[in-house]
Amino acid sequence: MTTAAVLLVVAGVCVAVGARPCEQHEKCVALAVCPSLRRLAAKGTALDADGKAALRAAQCGWAAGDAAMPEVCCPLLPLDECALPNPDRLLFSTTVRVFEAPWVVRLAYRSGKGSLEFGCSASLVTDLYLVTAAHCVVPRTPVSARLGELDTGTEQDCSDVAQDQLLCAAPALDVAVDTVIEHPGHAEHADGRNDIALVRLRRAVSFTDDVRPVCLPVDGVVVPPTRGHRFLVAHGWGTQANNGSAVMTKGQLVALTLEECATRLPAARRVDAALQQCTVPSHRSNACRGDPGGPLTGASVLTGSDSRAVESLVGVLSSEACDIGANDGVPTVSTRVAPFVPWILARLAENGSVH
């Protein structure tokens, strides 16, 4: 009997004879290679009734040629750990505190002189993968990613959370880039459509308070802001050309309808409403900075038995989210993430990324 089967027996779980089809955010794999469900089974006799039910419900079949090896629908995304709420964040402020946006990542590039320089940003979505803009990975490819950074001028980031009380994070983490995956439709359009890409890190990172993924808007699982909820948030440092900040800032943006966007954009500029999102700074955040490739997030709900409020990745910034009064109300056009979630999940499944 295989180790995985022994775990199920010890846990008192009778596996099903049949199988269920996996959802789009899952992959049918052997229990032995599914970290989250294997940890659940490893609890043995300490596993409660809900845990046993979860293991039974997860079964999708049996490994080929091994009748003792159950296969399970294993999550492709760490939905149980993504975008946990931060009670210390400051609402309606451009100030970002430590642990507030732990999914924001800076991408580093090799300069012509051989030194490293930061350009685009990205969003951590699993322990191995980042989502960014396609124009941030081609023709220039990032060589490393910096996670868990707030202030670029300090070794350790700290924030005041109460009188005479500091909350400090661990030093920023630099991880080499393994490969990049440009969306195949990006090169076909010069108007910014399909401006999305994946960056795979050379090694998996551990989730901590200052390094944690944002939730992807998986259909039926993570419910993103409705059309009526028009406020989104951009995080970033900005660029030197626009007097970027050494400290990450945030700003509230207003999502525009297609009609509103069309009236504010130059006549020659066209927007694909299904794939792109127009935003303008709200009156509260006209000093925000967003980096190309960085996240545009919105308050969302993770459904299911552990339903909770989360932040989901609504958009990927195609250009700076806002300038200090420089754009005179001209919208920023960003890439909607939801239409590309199936493509992202397919790439994760191909590369064996399970949780």
From TrEMBL:
Q: What EC number(s) does the entry state?
A: 3.4.21.-
Where does this one sit in the cell? Answer: Secreted
Sorted alphabetically, the keyword list is:
Disulfide bond, Glycoprotein, Hydrolase, Protease, Secreted, Serine protease, Signal
One of its Pfam families is: CLIP
Q: Which leading EC class covers this enzyme?
A: hydrolase
SMART domains attached to this UniProt entry: Tryp_SPc (SM00020)
InterPro entries tied to this protein: CLIP, CLIP_sf, Peptidase_S1_PA, Peptidase_S1_PA_chymotrypsin, Peptidase_S1A, Ser/Thr_Proteases_Immune/Dev, Trypsin_dom, TRYPSIN_HIS
Instruction: Tell me where the signal peptide lies.
Output: 1-19
Q: Which GO terms describe its cellular component?
A: extracellular region
Chief localization: secreted
Q: Name one GO molecular function term.
A: serine-type endopeptidase activity
Boundaries of each Peptidase S1 domain copy? 90-349
Q: Name one GO biological process term.
A: proteolysis
Under PANTHER family, the record lists: TRYPTASE-RELATED
User: What does UniProt say about this protein's domains?
Assistant: The clip domain consists of 35-55 residues which are 'knitted' together usually by 3 conserved disulfide bonds forming a clip-like compact structure.
Q: Which family does it belong to?
A: Belongs to the peptidase S1 family. CLIP subfamily.
Protein name in the entry = CLIP domain-containing serine protease
Tell me the organism: Thrips palmi (Melon thrips)
Gene designation: LOC117651024
